[in-house]
Each structure stands twice: as structure tokens, then as C-alpha cells.
Specification:
The structure holds two protein chains of two kinds. Chain A is an alpha+beta fold. Chain A is built from 19 helices and 27 strands. Chain B contains six helices and five strands. Chain B has a five-stranded mixed sheet, with helices on both faces. Classes of the chains: A alpha+beta, B alpha+beta. At the A-B interface, α5, α7 and α19 of A face α1, α3, α4 and α6 of B.
Chain lengths: 671, 154
């Protein structure tokens, strides 16, 4: 789409107010500058005098608004992205306001993926250059405007603290005083980025810009939206995967005070009420009849059996090097293992929700989403409206973890809204959220290694078997979206068309270890009607667990210390070796532990980062596992905000432990 | 009509007596800082204070609150322990997604009011019912300790 929300349509809730400047809601349209960049849609209808690009807007009062095309779900991107912009724009973070971007792939696509989305650990990697450049363009224009005002050489001026200074005379003009002139200037052909040694923000532990609103209750998540005349709905989807609605008598729900309507859908029932309590009571009162369909007796064991059988098939090759068969045949010893990892739910603490106002001429949605343009497309499809009649108001996310990369709940909400008069907020109960999450796939992995007489691997095979998230997602994306194809590259496109799921093998295809003869392949095997989706850390979370477990098996079988065993295989990967050694040193690796305690080490290479961890674990006589300490060493390259990196490691460790110890989702009787 | 005392104001609400306070706050009064997480008192996101004690508003029928004072995250900064907790949360940048943090701060503020110098065991006991999916637990513990050390008035 080619449109931001028109001037008056931007609600106050669209603005995340930040810092000391956050006293009042600022209502600005998406006016573009009179001359120069982009199409001048909406110009003149707002007080935003200067918008050099899609990310920065400065008004005549000098208020700097940074438009966040990435969404904040805890990862700190609403601090990191402003740091990149403000570093080059030369403004203080305390003086900027943040605003959620509207859906617009043309302006806000993630450079690494080609669509506007937040996920895949891409925000800083993908925007490191583009956002600094966006800031530098604005700074360059503001300096040029000041130089023109003073009739001096721009090279004799510099920008700092939201103002331009003329160095020889000390004259000073604030950005707000320069916006009209700057808006009339042509875009610079090129801009120079700051020398990293002059960074004043990047690399420092800047405090989170979203923190205050999150400690005083004013932060607005999607679920917090309130509209005049709004009803609240909650729903039950057929508990058996793939089942449909047979029928429902709305009477018992309608008898409850506050219930307004019962909405039957193809495979679900929603109850619409004045408030969530009535909606929940109403839903509970219904005796819904379901057609349970072919999965009525499905159990986890059936799914595992199908995966195990599929693991006998040849897969699509993700990597093949050397002569694996010969090396395996001539190995001194061969070790094999199979690993299973269960379905896992996202369980975002903010239950899935979406608010819809549907009229004859348009549709507005309020929610927290990692994929605003997908939301727009989905709503357009369900309503039959053109995309430019669908407005998406994004919010802070009460957890994403991949759940909000999906639009299933948007489709549901719009289907319900089609049968309801006036705005409706659809909120899933926690039970519904867990039972109808789109889980991380159940994977079945088979590994084999041939070892030489010293125990080092001379042959390595790894077959990943599981459902393909990427096939489901990319079937909608690849054929028609040139931007995506350009972003992900022809190689990935071809691999995907051939049936390889590059996400499913990420972390398996290229372990950091020296493995001279290696074959990694992928077999797609879908569970019946159980949707699977990206889960925090995506492919690597599954594969690192499997690969590192198998490396431990090899070390144990050949009576090597697991740290030394890994270290010897890292000759070609100095960064990996360094974090491994650092984690081992810091943890006191090698020191003896009391009975019932153990210590493990693991290494990860993913998304350009290297991480090693040592975990101390106590196992009680009853078999309860307790992780008492984790030592973590990280090399993530250039760091924008070290405190955010630390926070992500702390949180990721706990998320991982939770998944391993408590996260298993099982299926019985198709539910 | 039910009379509620919320954050120092008296509110008349026309709701069923069995309706949990959570939905009265969020859907009727419009105080959305108190969060819905599970509806079964399992996650702590909905924690508020009733006469200074932390309660799970998702399982607290409004009819039980007659004559009692309800304090939510929107007003907890007006209490010394709430203000200290909020400041410590900011000092240590505890929050990530932030959705659970209203409940975390309400539980922490109640703990600090009751036990100004909580031990690790006190913290575990008071905070065990508050889930954070982002995994900010390490910082929550550190922030409570920090708040306890700032002591006295916030």
C-alpha cells in the first residue's frame, strides 16, 4: 500500500510517548515534504514540516518523531532503532518521540527479508546501515539549510543536540527553525556516516525508551484498546484439529446478562458481549456440537511414528561435502542417535487478540503484530476490501516469540466482525491460546558420525524431519513478491522450490566444527491439521540442541572432556573457539562437583552471533532437574546497546530452560 | 449497582456481583494497566492491592470488595513502596515486553511494604506466582533488592 493514515485518522493510541517530552499526545499526519522525496501525498495537511524519509519527521517546534518500522516485543528494538537514527541525526534520545509505522512494505520492508516484519533476529543486522543513513540524510539537509540561511559553506557547520552550529561564529539554529528550508532542498546524492570512534550513543547502555510506560501501567498493548461502542468477544475453536462446527443453540449464552450475540463460524463459535466476563460466561454456557473429523483419535505417538517412518526417506540436501559414504564405511567407529523435540507453544503473556471496526468503506484493526502488511492483506482478503481501505494500528506486543508473525487470529477476528455491528475486540482465553497456538514443529532428527581412532569425526550425517513452516509461509510470498526474492536471494528461492526448508536446517547445515565429510538433509513431514510456526530462536533452537547433544554423545563415547572435544574441532572457527574458551574459563570448567550435580557446555552459531554456555544442573534423587547457574559468553559483533544484549541473553536462557523442562505440548484424541 | 473504591475514587458500577474485578477494571472502568493473562490466578499479571494486600483480580468477585480500597498499577506510584519498586525497575531496566510487569510491580510493592528488607526466600515466596515469559526474573530479584536498599521514602 502507498499510504500512511491520513491526518485525522491517527489515534492518540498510535503514539508511544517517550521521556520528558512525553507530556502530551502529538497528532501529526504523515505529511511528506513539499519537494524532493517520495510522493507528496498529504503534504500541507499537517504541521510536520520536514520528513526526509520514512523514519524521521521534524516539526516547526523541533519535535522529532521517529517512526518505528520494527515492533517492540521486549527485545529492545524501540531503543536500538532510535539509537541508530539519533546517532546520525544528532538529537538526544530524551527529545524524540516514537510512533508505530503503518503497514507499508515499500517503505518499511526488512532489508533481509523483503517484507515489513520483525523477527528472525534481523532488526539490528538489517538496519545497521539503512537507519544510520536515514539519520545522516536528515542531518545533512538540516546543515545545508542552516548554511544556506547564513550564506556559509556547509563544511563550516556541524550538528549537535538538535541544532546546527556555525563553527567560526558560534551561530546556532535549532532544527525546528530549519525544517521549512530543509524540506525544500534536494536529497543529497551521498552522505557520510560517522566514524565509529565518534559514536556517542551506539555501544553505550542506553536506558530503554519504553520502560517508564511499562512500569506505570500506561503502556498500550493491543489488548488495551477501547473504542466507543466496542463489544468484546471470545471464542472456542473445534478442540480437535481439523474439526468443524456441527451446530450450537445460542439460547443459553443469550440468557446471560451482557451477552449480545453468538457468532457461528466454520470451525468455531464466538460469543459477543459487553465485557469479557459476560463473553466467557456465555461461551461456557453453550453446548457446542462439533464434527470432530478424521483426527478424532490422533495422538502424539501417531505423529512420532509418521516422523520416524519419514526419516527412512531420502531428504532434500542442505549440504553435502566430501565422500560421506566412504568415510563412514572406513571409520574406526560409528555412532548413531535419533532425537525428538516436542511441539512447543509460544504462550505470549498477552493472550492473542485483535480489535476490528468494519464498515462498508473500510476496515480498521488494532493489535500488536510482527507483520503489519500481512495483517492488512489478510483483512483485505476476508472483507473483500482493497488493501488501501484497511488500516492497521500497531501496538506494543505483550510477547511475540513468533506467535504474532501469524495472522490466523486476524482472520478470525475479521470473520467475527463481519457478523457484528460496530467495533469488536476479540480476545482469546488462555485455554484457547494454548490449545490453538501454532506450535513449534515436532522434529525428528537422525544423526550418525564416523570417528577416527582418536575419536574425531571423519563423517557426519544429519537428517532433519518435520513440518515446513517456510513452505507454508513462502507459498504465499515467493511467487509474486519481487522484493522478497531480491532480499532473500535466488539461492534460497531455488532451494525452497526444491523442497528444502532452510529454517528447519539452520544451525544443522553449518555447525562451527570441522566436519570433513558431511551430509545434512531435510524430509518434510506434516502432522495432520496441526499448524506449526516459528518459535523464538527459530531453526537454531531445535538444531543446536540436537547437534550439541550429539557432540556430547561423541565425546562421552570416546571418553573425552566435552569442552576439549569441541575445542579441538574449532580450528577453523576462531570466534566460536573464543566464546567456548571464555565460557569454560568463567565457569571454572573442570573443577569437581558434588554428587547429584553436573555441568554441561554448548556452543551456538546463529544469525551472525557466537554464544557458548555452561550450565550447572542439580538432579534430585526423585529426578527433578534444577538449573542452578548458567555462564554465557557472547560474541555478537558490533554491539548497539550492551545492556539489551545482556537482557536478551538472560531472558533467552530462561525461555530455553522453560521450553526444555516444562514446554512440551502433547496431543490426545486429536486435541 | 456496586460501589468500588479504586485508586482513591469511588466508582458505581452496574455489573453482576460475581464478575471478577479484573474485567470491571479493564472493560467497565477503563483502567487497562491491570492485565489479563490467564483468568485462573496462575500468572499474576492481574495483581492489584486490596487494602494493601496483593490479590489476583481475575478471581476476585467485585461483590467481595465492599468497603475495601483497591489500588492498581496506575496509582501504586503514590505509595512509598510502589514508587521505590518503579524506580528500581527503571534503574535496572527490568522490563522487556512489559506485559507482566504491572503484576510484578504490584507483587513487589506489597512485599516491600510488608517486608522492607526481603531475603531471597521472601522474594521467591512473594513473586513465585508472577510469570514473565521474557524471563526477566533475574532483574526482578535484583530490582527488589535495590528498592529495599533505597529504603525509607522514595
Amino acid at each position: 500500500m502507498n499510504r500512511g493514515p491520513a491526518g485525522g485518522a491517527v489515534s492518540r493510541r498510535d503514539f508511544l510517548r517517550v521521556g520528558a517530552a512525553g507530556g502530551g499526545g502529538l497528532l501529526l499526519g504523515f505529511a511528506l515534504p513539499a519537494g524532493g522525496w517520495g510522493a507528496g501525498r498529504g503534504a500541507g495537511q499537517s504541521t510536520a514540516a520536514f520528513q526526509p524519509n520514512a523514519f524521521i519527521r521534524i516539526d516547526r517546534q523541533g519535535v522529532v518523531t521517529l517512526v518505528m518500522h520494527k515492533v517492540e516485543m521486549g527485545q529492545g528494538t524501540y531503543t536500538a532503532m532510535p539509537m541508530l537514527l539519533a546517532e546520525e541525526l544528532e538529537v538526544e534520545l530524551s527529545d524524540v518521540r516514537l510512533e508505530h509505522a503503518p503497514p507499508d512494505d515499500a517503505r518499511y520492508a526488512e532489508p533481509l527479508f523483503g517484507v515489513q516484519q520483525t523477527g528472525g533476529s534481523a532488526s539490528v543486522r538489517g538496519n545497521w546501515v539503512p537507519l544510520r543513513r536515514a539519520g545522516a540524510v536528515a542531518r545533512t539537509l538540516l546543515i545545508a539549510a542552516a548554511a544556506a540561511t547564513w550564506h556559509v559553506d556547509p563544511a563550516s557547520c556541524h550538528a549537535t543536540g538538535g541544532a546546527v552550529i556555525h563553527d567560526p561564529t558560534g551561530r546556532r539554529l535549532r532544527y525546528g527553525e530549519l525544517v521549512d528550508r530543509a524540506a525544500g532542498l534536494p536529497a543529497p546524492r551521498s552522505v557520510s556516516l560517522k566514524d565509529p570512534k565518534n559514536f556517542r550513543l551506539i555501544g553505550t547502555p542506553v536506558k530503554r525508551l519504553d520502560a517508564r510506560a511499562k512500569v506505570d501501567g500506561t503502556a498500550q498493548f493491543g489488548i488495551d484498546i477501547r473504542l466507543p461502542g466496542m463489544k468484546i468477544a471470545t471464542l472456542a475453536t473445534c478442540p480437535v484439529f481439523g474439526g468443524t462446527l456441527a451446530g450450537v443453540d445460542p439460547g443459553p449464552a443469550l440468557a446471560i446478562a451482557g451477552v449480545r450475540q453468538v457468532v457461528p463460524l466454520h470451525d468455531a463459535v464466538a460469543v459477543v458481549a459487553d465485557h469479557m466476563w459476560a463473553a466467557k460466561q456465555g461461551l461456557g454456557a453453550l453446548a457446542i456440537r462439533w464434527n470432530e473429523g478424521p483426527n478424532a483419535h490422533l495422538a502424539t505417538a501417531d505423529i512420532v511414528r509418521a516422523l520416524a517412518q519419514a526419516s527412512e526417506r531420502e531428504g532434500v540436501v542442505a549440504r553435502r561435502e566430501g565422500d560421506v559414504e566412504r568415510a563412514m564405511a572406513s571409520a574406526a567407529r560409528k555412532i548413531e542417535a535419533a532425537y525428538e523435540v516436542p511441539f512447543l507453544a509460544h504462550a505470549t503473556l498477552e493472550p492473542v487478540n485483535c480489535t476490528v471496526r468494519l464498515g462498508p468503506d473500510g476496515c480498521e484493526l488494532w493489535l500488536g503484530t510482527q507483520v503489519p502488511t500481512f495483517v492488512q492483506t489478510a483483512a483485505a482478503r476476508v472483507t473483500g476490501l482493497p488493501k488501501d481501505k484497511v488500516q492497521v494500528h500497531n501496538h506494543l506486543l505483550g510477547g511475540g516469540f513468533g506467535r504474532r508473525l501469524e495472522v490466523d487470529f486476524v482472520v478470525r477476528a475479521v470473520e467475527i466482525a463481519k457478523q457484528v455491528s460496530g467495533p469488536v475486540k476479540v480476545v482469546w482465553t488462555r485455554e484457547e491460546d494454548l490449545q490453538h497456538d501454532m506450535y513449534r514443529p515436532y522434529y525428528y532428527d537422525r544423526l550418525a558420525a564416523g570417528l577416527d581412532d582418536q575419536g574425531a569425526p571423519t563423517a557426519w550425517t544429519h537428517r532433519v524431519v518435520g513440518s515446513s513452516i517456510l513452505a507454508r509461509v513462502s507459498s504465499e510470498l515467493f511467487p509474486k513478491n519481487l522484493r522478497v526474492i531480491r532480499a532473500v536471494g535466488l539461492r534460497q528461492l531455488v532451494a525452497t522450490v526444491k523442497g528444502l526448508d532452510v529454517d528447519a536446517v539452520e544451525g544443522a547445515a553449518e555447525p562451527p566444527y570441522t566436519l570433513p565429510n558431511i551430509r545434512v538433509d531435510y524430509v518434510r513431514q506434516e502432522p495432520p491439521d496441526i499448524p506449526t510456526a516459528f518459535w523464538r530462536g527459530v531453526g537454531p533452537t531445535h538444531n543446536i540442541f540436537v547437534v550439541e547433544s550429539f557432540i556430547d554423545e561423541l565425546a562421552a563415547a570416546t571418553k573425552h572432556d566435552p569442552f576439549e572435544y569441541r575445542r579441538r574441532l574449532l580450528g577453523a572457527s576462531p570466534r566460536a573457539k573464543r566464546v567456548l574458551e571464555l565460557a569454560a574459563d568463567a565457569s571454572g570448567w573442570g573443577r569437581s562437583l558434588p554428587a547429584g550435580q553436573g555441568r554441561g557446555i554448548a556452543l551456538l552459531h546463529g544469525f551472525g552471533s557466537y554464544i557458548a554456555q555452561v550450565a550447572d544442573v542439580v538432579v534430585s534423587p526423585r529426578g527433578d532437574v534444577r538449573v542452578t547457574r548458567v555462564v554465557c559468553a557472547v560474541d555478537c559483533g558490533t554491539i548497539v546497546n550492551p545492556d539489551t544484549v545482556r537482557a536478551q541473553m538472560e531472558g533467552g536462557i530462561i525461555f530455553g530452560i522453560t521450553g526444555v523442562l516444562f514446554g512440551e505440548i502433547t496431543i490426545k484424541d486429536g486435541r | 449497582m456496586i460501589t468500588l473504591h479504586v485508586n482513591g475514587a469511588t466508582r458505581m458500577v452496574d455489573v453482576p456481583p460475581g464478575m471478577p474485578l479484573l474485567w470491571v477494571l479493564r472493560d467497565v472502568i477503563g483502567l487497562t494497566g491491570t492485565k489479563f493473562g490467564c483468568g485462573m490466578a496462575l500468572c499474576g499479571a492481574c495483581t492489584v492491592h486490596v487494602d494493601g494486600q496483593p490479590v489476583r483480580s481475575c478471581v476476585t468477585p467485585v461483590a467481595t470488595l465492599s468497603g475495601k480500597r483497591v489500588t492498581t498499577i496506575e496509582a501504586i506510584g503514590g505509595t512509598p513502596s510502589g514508587a521505590r519498586a518503579q524506580q528500581a525497575w527503571l534503574d535496572l531496566d527490568v522490563v522487556q515486553c512489559g506485559y507482566c510487569q504491572s503484576g510484578q510491580i504490584m507483587s513487589a510493592a506489597a512485599l516491600l511494604a510488608r517486608t522492607p528488607r526481603p531475603s531471597d526466600a521472601d522474594i521467591d515466596r512473594a513473586m513465585a506466582g508472577n510469570i514473565c515469559r521474557c524471563g526477566t526474573y533475574v532483574r526482578i530479584r535484583a530490582a527488589i533488592k535495590r528498592a529495599s536498599q533505597t529504603g525509607g521514602r522514595a
